Amino acid sequence: MAGRHFDEWNIGDKITHEIRRTVTEADNLFFTVMTHNPQPLHLDVEAAKASEFGQILVNGTYTFALMVGLSVADTTLGTLVANLGYDKLVMPKPVFLGDTLHATSEVAALRQSKSRPDTGIVTFVHEATNQRGEVVCRCERSALLKKSAA
């Protein structure tokens, strides 16, 4: 199991996730179609060319999901009870086809669960950057994690 238990985290712990992902046309197309998002900026090359971006814009909810996904192996894999919420989601720069994204996670808060003594809540700040070092997505994620058996 790669994820850490609640009691293995400290406020300020920061991880640079090794897994990176280059966003492909298929990623964007499949995600956009699967989520029934008809936005022409994601699907229509001609409409996207005529926009201020001049090219296809990657679906923002894909960017968000990829950022969280890149973090899972190092943070909550095998220790997660439930994600409790996502806050302060921002996307300061666009993502385009061919961009390579990588992510970091930092622990912003820790709290014992009041109703479940075998768990605790970790608040992570996840951040995704592109190959140019530009932040393309950031959010806080509150996760209910198991405590270690020790």
If you had to describe this structure to a student in words, what would you say it looks like?
This protein has 150 residues and is α+β, with helices and mostly antiparallel strands. It has one domain (6-146): Hotdog Thioesterase (Thiol Ester Dehydrase, Chain A, Roll). The protein is 24% helix and 35% strand. It has helices at 25-34, 40-43, 45-50, 60-75; strands at 14-16, 21-22, 80-90, 100-112, 119-129, 135-146. Strands 1, 2, 3, 4, 5 and 6 form a six-stranded antiparallel beta sheet that branches. Strand 4 and strand 5 form a beta hairpin.
In a nutshell, what does this entry contain?
By secondary structure, the protein is α+β, with helices and mostly antiparallel strands.
